[in-house]
Q: What sequence folds into this?
């Protein structure tokens, strides 16, 4: 029987002990990482094993799905992906934070060796409170929930998906990992009475105008980023306020940039109350500047401290909690003051499209879903209205009874 000739990619090699091995070496195209010619090399015990692997590799190469071996680590893959993002600093900070647990635990691991189990174990440990880089369970941290775990998996999926698109990975394992069931944050809003109580206390507070702005629907970043040049006290009936700047926290540092979205940039009419409190704040700051002279800071922003320096965004949240305590109202989040504005406008019959424009939303449906909430008093009022409707229906004579009564009148007449 004729001896089968080996394919040119397979070479038989005899070892010193007389054992035979079969060395496979096949061209697989260009390595996307190095830009050089790539080869697949491996050694097998039998010719059949080598032939089987050769057929598999050639099939993948011909289909364009072959992925060459790379030493790219997870750390480098994450760093490269982040470096390629053209996004706001705050968004980049959020992405970096989301990827950190994976980098802490598996940063040195070649990305092609990452398994679904690696990701499942990471999620399980984060949910139970184990630190991402600790495998003993001795070092605990606050457990992660859906709001942090799911964005982490989404960002990992983005990184791996980019590598798949570049031909450096065969598949995206993060897409196979189950996300945690989502839980929405509970939104709270003040009642009309609570708003009046807090604003009455705000009138005694040097930063009181900030709380008027918050309850008028401005975001925290919009309050902190508002400048005196954005306010025109003479325009319209009582002046206008233009939202054109955002002051937010990124990695603990206060940074400023344009508004959150194009729709967030808007000009609002000042109410008589807002006109009054802003005028008072401007006069207060002018007096402080006069007293400090050259020691006074820029003083360009509407909400500043006694020396003209803008507050850190996180400080505004702390001051809001303090004023809620002083006013003896519920301590809702500063952002919930914005929800309060939308909800109370809605309950007063303001059209949703107008509320969306006031809050700086492009989508009225989003405003309804996210920023407009029912309140207990309004629900009780709805119950009274329904009861009145039902009672009237019960007391009204039926159509049949009315016809019968009319017929009897005709016969007796």
A:
């Amino acid at each position: 029987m004729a001896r089968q000739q080996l394919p040119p990619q397979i070479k038989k090699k005899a070892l010193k002990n007389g054992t035979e091995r079969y060395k496979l070496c096949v061209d697989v195209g260009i390595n996307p990482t190095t830009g050089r010619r790539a080869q697949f090399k491996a050694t097998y015990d039998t010719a059949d094993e080598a032939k089987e692997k050769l057929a598999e590799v050639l099939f993948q190469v011909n289909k364009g799905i072959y992925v060459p071996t790379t030493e790219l680590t997870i750390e480098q893959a994450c760093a490269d992906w982040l470096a390629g993002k053209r996004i706001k600093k705050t968004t980049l900070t959020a992405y970096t934070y989301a990827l950190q647990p994976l980098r802490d635990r598996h940063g040195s691991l070649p990305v092609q060796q990452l398994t679904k189990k690696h990701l499942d174990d990471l999620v399980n440990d984060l949910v139970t409170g184990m630190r991402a880089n600790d495998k003993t369970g001795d070092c605990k941290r606050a457990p992660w929930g859906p709001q942090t775990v799911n964005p982490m998996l989404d960002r990992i999926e983005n990184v791996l998906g980019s590598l798949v698109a570049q031909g450096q990975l065969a598949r995206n394992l993060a897409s196979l990992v189950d996300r945690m069931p989502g839980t929405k944050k509970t939104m709270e809003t003040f009642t009309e009475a609570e708003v009046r109580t807090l604003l009455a206390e705000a009138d005694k507070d040097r930063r009181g105008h900030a709380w008027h702005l918050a309850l008028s629907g401005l975001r925290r970043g919009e309050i902190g980023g508002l400048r005196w040049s954005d306010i025109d006290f003479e325009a319209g009936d009582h002046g206008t306020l233009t939202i054109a700047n955002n002051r937010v926290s990124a990695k603990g540092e206060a940074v400023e940039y344009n508004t959150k979205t194009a729709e967030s940039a808007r000009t609002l009419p000042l109410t008589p109350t807002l006109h009054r409190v802003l005028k008072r704040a401007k006069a207060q700051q002018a007096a402080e500047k006069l007293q400090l002279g050259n020691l006074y800071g820029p003083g360009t922003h509407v909400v500043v401290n006694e020396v003209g320096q803008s507050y850190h965004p996180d400080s505004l949240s702390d001051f809001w909690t303090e004023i809620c305590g002083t006013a003896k109202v519920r301590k809702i989040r500063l952002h919930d003051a914005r929800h309060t504005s939308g909800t109370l406008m809605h309950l007063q019959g303001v059209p949703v499209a107008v509320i969306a424009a006031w809050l700086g939303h492009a989508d009225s449906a989003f405003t309804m879903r996210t920023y407009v909430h029912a309140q207990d008093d309004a629900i009780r009022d709805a119950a009274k209205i329904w009861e009145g409707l039902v009672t009237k229906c019960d007391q009204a004579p039926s159509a049949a009874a009315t016809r019968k009564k009319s017929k009897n009148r005709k016969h007796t007449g």
Q: What stands out?
A: The radius of gyration is 34 Å. The longest helix spans residues 272-292.
